[in-house]
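Subgroup meeting minutes
Present: P.N., E.W., G.H.
Scribe: E.W.

1. P.N. recapped why we're keeping a running log of single-chain structure predictions: easier to compare across weeks, and new members can see raw inputs and outputs side by side.
2. G.H. added today's entry (162 aa).
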Amino acid sequence: MTAAQAIESVLRDQELQYERVSPQSFVVALPGDKRLKTACWLTIGTHALEIEAFVMRRPDENRERVYEFLLRRNVRMYAVSWGIDAAGDVYLTGRLPLAAITADEIDRVLGSVLEYADGTFNQLLELGFGSSIRREWAWRVKRGESLANLQAFADFAQRPVD
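Output recorded in log:
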């Protein structure tokens, strides 16, 4: 089974939403709980499968703390690691040799991407955008607006803005 066949087999079997953007590239929408969807690119190269998933824009505040938070986690991660681009946006990236690509391995890698992106998302937003979230919460409360899409941050959003 080729790498492309293994990838497509897993995506179909897991009933994941995906698009095959070229013969060698797939974009998969990984559904989460905290982060509703994580777009994950899988690109088959000459010698390796490249994995890339956007997680969040450059933090507005506490950049050093956010980046330290991510780097400390890198040592415990499987197949992918945290990285930032030139703008400071946060990604998960990885590379696996094509010889290692099997349906089980693709399933494991996609599970890792989802766990890392979804599992840390609220913590990353609190660290990198906490003041903005608290201001938005206060503004909505003052105006009687819905807080429905901010409920994940209720535990810290009610604290005063620094």
